[in-house]
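Per your request, structure below.
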C-alpha cells in the first residue's frame, strides 16, 4: 500500500485525508467510469473535487505519472510561470489491495465564465471590443509564458479558459492533464496544436484582425516574418481532414 496526501494549511482541518476528500458531499458535475467531479462548499468557499479511480488510459495505467498527478503538477507549473489558474488546495494518490484512487481539489474561481459558454449563448461581452481586446491581451500573455518555457497545454480549448466579465477581465487557464514540456520538432508541433485548438472557435467568433493580434502578442512580435507565416500555415491546417 502507498499513499500521499497534501493540503494547504488553511484547509487542513477540512480535508484531513484523501478518503475524507473522496467522501465529501456536493453537487455532482460529471461522472464517468474513470473519474468524478463534485462541487462542494465549506465555510462559504466552493471547491471542485476531482477523483480518479484509475491512473489513466493506455500506458498511463502502468507507467509514468498518472492523469491526476499530471493535472496537479501542471497547475503547479502554471503557478511557477505566473499563469493564472484555479488555486490548488489539495492533492494525492492512494494504491491499496482494493485498487487506485487519485484526488485533486481546486478552489472555485469566482465570478468567471468559460469562453466557450459565452460564445454558445451569444453573450454581449463578445461584442464589446474593449473587453474582447483585454481578454486577448491577457490570454496571449498566458500562452506566451507557457510556450516560451517550452510548455504545451495540449487541450487549450475555449471551455478551459475562464474569464471575468468586468472592465479589466482576468483570464485563467484550467484543466490541463495532458500538458508537458517538449523540445525540438515535438515542441513546434505542440505549439501549433495549442494555437489550432484556440482557433477552432476563434475563426468563427473573432475577426481576422483579432486573431492576428492574438498571434502577434503570443509570439511577442510587431509584424509577421517568414517563420511566423509558416507557423500560421501549420496552425490553419493542423486539423485538416480530421473530424
Amino acid at each position: 500500500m502507498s499513499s500521499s496526501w497534501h493540503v494547504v494549511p488553511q484547509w487542513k482541518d477540512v480535508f484531513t485525508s484523501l478518503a475524507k476528500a473522496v467522501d465529501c458531499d456536493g453537487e455532482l458535475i460529471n461522472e464517468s467510469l474513470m473519474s468524478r467531479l463534485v462541487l462542494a462548499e465549506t465555510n462559504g468557499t466552493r471547491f471542485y473535487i476531482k477523483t480518479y479511480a484509475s491512473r489513466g488510459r493506455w500506458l498511463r495505467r502502468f507507467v509514468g505519472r498518472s492523469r491526476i498527478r499530471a493535472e496537479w503538477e501542471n497547475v503547479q507549473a502554471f503557478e511557477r510561470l505566473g499563469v493564472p489558474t484555479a488555486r490548488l488546495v489539495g492533492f494525492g494518490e492512494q494504491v491499496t489491495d482494493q485498487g487506485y484512487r487519485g484526488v485533486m481539489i481546486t478552489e472555485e474561481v469566482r465570478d468567471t465564465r468559460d469562453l466557450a459558454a459565452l460564445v454558445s449563448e451569444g453573450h454581449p461581452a463578445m461584442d464589446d471590443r474593449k473587453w474582447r481586446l483585454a481578454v486577448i491581451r491577457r490570454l496571449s500573455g498566458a500562452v506566451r509564458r507557457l510556450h516560451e518555457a517550452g510548455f504545451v497545454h495540449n487541450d487549450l480549448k475555449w471551455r478551459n479558459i475562464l474569464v471575468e466579465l468586468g472592465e479589466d477581465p482576468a483570464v485563467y487557464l484550467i484543466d490541463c492533464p495532458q500538458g508537458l514540456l517538449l523540445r525540438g520538432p515535438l515542441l513546434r508541433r505542440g505549439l501549433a496544436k495549442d494555437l489550432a485548438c484556440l482557433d477552432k472557435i476563434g475563426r468563427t467568433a473573432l475577426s481576422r484582425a483579432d486573431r492576428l493580434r492574438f498571434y502577434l502578442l503570443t509570439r511577442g512580435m510587431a509584424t509577421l516574418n517568414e517563420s511566423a507565416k509558416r507557423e500560421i500555415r501549420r496552425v490553419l491546417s493542423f486539423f485538416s481532414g480530421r473530424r
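The mean pLDDT is 92.

Regards,
D.
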